[in-house]
Amino acid sequence: MTPSPTEARWPDRRFADLLRSRHPIVLAPMAGAGGVALAAGAIEGGAVGSLPCGMLAADDVREQVLQVRTRADGPINLNFFCHLMPAATDDGPWRALLAPFHERFGVAAGPEAGPLRCPFGPDLCEAVEAARPELVSFHFGLPEQALLDRVRSSGAKVLATAATVAEARWLAERGVDAIVAQGWEAGGHSGRFLGGRPDEQMGLFALLPQIADAVDLPVIAAGGIADGRGIAAALILGAAAVQIGTAYLHCPESLILESHRSALRSEAGEHSVFTNLFSGGLARGLWTPPMEALGPERAEAPPYPLATAALMPLAAEAAKRGEAGFRPMWAGQSARIGGRPRSARELTEGLARDALARIAGKD
Length: 363
Hints:
This protein is α/β, with parallel strands linked by helices.
């Protein structure tokens, strides 16, 4: 593929060979916030458009890919979770902790309330084979080898998230095509899957060069990157591309509530924290009323992703009353950077233009 004049100015050509996008930018897959419109807009701007598929049925995956294809011409990344579903868990302590909230809103917790995040399995693999995306990315490790082989046979390149250097080595040994280095700053769920102390996770600019040195693969930097300065810095530190999420939440195409959008632009956007209240897994987001009342982390929360069920009726009832506190407001630590509302296409083009100017020493 012959690079365009714009592409030729990027210092690392590996992203174009792998991602097939005009710019080394990947829209982060953000369940509950990203969808067809956001992915299509990012693609139109020259980035990779990602669809979060961990909470979708196989038919929905196929339909969303088709919709993006009709709106934009460029690479699509489908993102899936690879967590192990925990064994049956007594969530009585969790429900007891939430009982005052259920009483206040007049709702029952319900045994099967709300969607659970499902791990990648045969049905979703069939959707990949039918949709034939350019890229498939995995969070929380990799699927079983037979499914991974089928994904590769579909023609998709495989990306996976590493939150530690050890995880990057593990992924490289299993033949992924590129690694997403996720720093502590990133919004949403931490992709850690090999265990260890969560408070040992590195910030991106400590993690990134170490992963780049440890593996002979393109590395995609993720966490706290929200403008051209961050992109240029990541490329200097060894990244072949960047993955950006929170900056895209400001776009009108994102699916977040207006209360979430307003919080990102306010001083609240400077105070993200890790919490396990919304899913049972650690994820970075802005403060919400349940976090204020209970603290950001509780031992009573059942393991990921089982904590969600008891919260969903509360979120639905609160929304009817104009309150959004029982829905998470995921955000990274750079939430307020570049918070001017722009379309996904305009944001992508602006990010690339700013980064190129800084790389060329013009800013």
